[in-house]
Design brief:
Layout lengths: L22 H7 L11 H7 L27 H6 L18 H14 L3 E5 L2 H12 L5 E5 L4 H15 L2 E5 L4 H7 L5 E7 L11 H10 L3 E5 L16 E5 L13 E5 L1 H7 L6 H5 L5 H8 L5 H21 L4 E2 L9 H7 L9 E5 L3 H14 L3 E3 L8 E5 L10 H6 L6 E5 L6 H18 L1
Parallel strand pairs: 2-3, 2-4, 4-5, 5-6, 10-11
Antiparallel strand pairs: 1-7, 6-7, 8-9, 9-12, 11-12
InterPro entries: Cys/Met-Metab_PyrdxlP-dep_enz, PyrdxlP-dep_Trfase, PyrdxlP-dep_Trfase_major, PyrdxlP-dep_Trfase_small
GO cellular component, one term: cytoplasm
GO molecular function, one term: carbon-sulfur lyase activity
């Protein structure tokens, strides 16, 4: 096998006394294979470095060790001094760098077309660590008013009281409002979701990136709702965040996150002395990283089917007079924008929303969908092979005040459906239609 493809761990045993030169260049080598000119994320992923197993297995080995040995007494000092590191296959402790997690991180970087990435124990830990690295006490963030409830709570409650970091929330597609909210010399980050949770508002990533860069900001985009569908870094974003727990995992059995961006940022986040990831310690378990690395190769196939079914169901529900929110429908305010930004053949995403008017009607319809028609499950999260549904205002966005929900476009009867791909399309449509017929009979 080619040496460029096989990570020979024992090389370090004969190299510990070598003089290490050009550390910065070697740190960049840590992320080799991540940046690719391919516009299709699946093609970019396929071109990335493949890590073989220790004994020649087609799958990488799991490095489950918490700590790592050295052969020479002075090596630990040199590692802690930054002279030796994972770019030379030297590992200290798995809260810092772990070989298995590092390989999954390379895969994430390839997927998003960024120079580097590192994976974390949850999506919220990825968001928190990235923002703590990019902001200092007294700092300021401009963020979309339409965000996942946990992210909104982090910015509106936790950061101001615990970190002295404030946030101005704006209508993200009002570009003038975005620019006017930026405070010269204080604002450091422009933050938004590529496809908003749960309103499915699509952000104009290229235009927002231009505004942010003109003002010297780091543009951070949460792409959890639209992996493969959108590639924010290729559209101008600096940092891409994922809750890997969702579509990328696909099994509703893993909690994980990722920060994708420049190698300089990721290296700072993992710095032994002031790195937000290193020091706050939201470490991903190596066994989790291995499991996820085996799922990413078929993410493209899954996303295409999620998107296809969501579009078909949205179109059919619309014909039946149901109030549907889905960016694949021509009347969606950002339909043309998403078409212009989206990666070819991945559709418009696997999430659609139905507005039932009131929370009582929403709850009744979800009950019929699950308990009468077996269409899906009442549960939060998304990206599962079964359809998951929740009433956002009283669940995943419940951290937001009524006023904040209104500004975010979250109505009381809004049902978010993450469309699965189990069974046949017509089988699942029949179940959905069955529940709708019963609901209409009762209401």
């Amino acid at each position: 096998m080619a040496d460029t493809l096989v990570n020979v761990h024992n090389n370090k045993r004969s190299n510990e006394n070598d003089v290490v030169e050009g550390r910065d260049a070697k740190k960049l080598m840590l992320w080799s294979g991540a940046v690719d000119a391919e516009s299709d994320p699946a093609a970019s992923f396929a071109n990335a470095r493949h890590e073989f197993g220790e004994h020649g297995g087609v799958n990488m080995s799991i490095e489950a060790s918490a700590t790592f040995t050295v052969m020479e007494p002075d090596t630990l000092r040199r590692m802690f001094a930054g002279e030796l590191g994972p770019e030379n296959d030297y590992f200290v402790y798995s809260r810092h760098f772990n070989p298995t997690v590092l390989n999954l991180s390379r895969q994430m970087a390839a997927l998003e077309g960024t120079e580097a990435a590192y994976c974390t124990s949850s999506g919220m830990s990825a968001i928190t660590a990235a923002l703590l690295q990019l902001c200092s006490s007294g700092g300021h963030i401009v963020a979309s008013s339409t965000l996942y409830g946990g992210t909104h709570a982090l910015m509106s409650n936790f950061f101001p009281s615990k970190c002295n970091i404030t946030t101005t929330f704006v209508e993200i597609n009002d570009l003038d409002a975005v620019e006017n909210a930026i405070v010269e010399g204080k604002t450091t980050v422009l933050y938004f979701e590529s496809m908003a949770n749960p309103s499915l508002k699509v952000a104009n990533i290229p235009a927002l990136a231009r505004i942010g860069h003109k003002k010297g900001l780091t543009v951070v985009v949460d792409n959890t709702f639209s992996p493969m569908v959108l590639s924010p870094a290729r559209l101008g974003a600096d940092v891409v965040i994922h809750s890997v727990s969702k579509f990328i995992s696909g099994g509703a059995d893993i909690i994980a996150g990722a920060v994708c961006g420049p190698a300089s940022l990721v290296n700072k986040m993992m710095d032994l002395h002031d790195g937000a990831l290193m020091l706050t310690g939201p470490t991903m378990n190596a066994k989790v990283a291995f499991d996820l690395s085996e799922r990413i190769p078929h993410l493209a196939l899954r996303m295409k089917e999620h998107s296809h079914r969501a579009l078909v169901f949205a179109q059919r529900l619309k014909k039946l007079g149901v109030k549907v929110l889905y960016p694949g429908l021509e009347e969606h305010p950002q339909h043309e924008l998403l078409k212009s930004m989206g990666n070819k053949d991945y559709g418009f995403g696997g999430i659609l929303c139905i507005d039932m008017g009131t929370v009582e009607k929403a709850n009744k319809f979800m009950s019929y969908l699950q308990n009468y028609a077996q269409f899906g499950f009442m549960a939060v999260s998304l990206g599962y092979y079964e359809t998951l549904m929740s009433c956002s205002g009283s669940s995943t966005s419940s951290e937001m005040s009524a006023e904040a929900q209104k500004l975010a476009g979250i109505t009381p009867g809004l049902i978010r459906l993450s469309i699965g791909y189990i069974g046949t399309l017509e089988q699942k449509w029949g179940q959905l239609e069955k529940a709708l017929i019963k609901f209409n009979e009762k209401h």
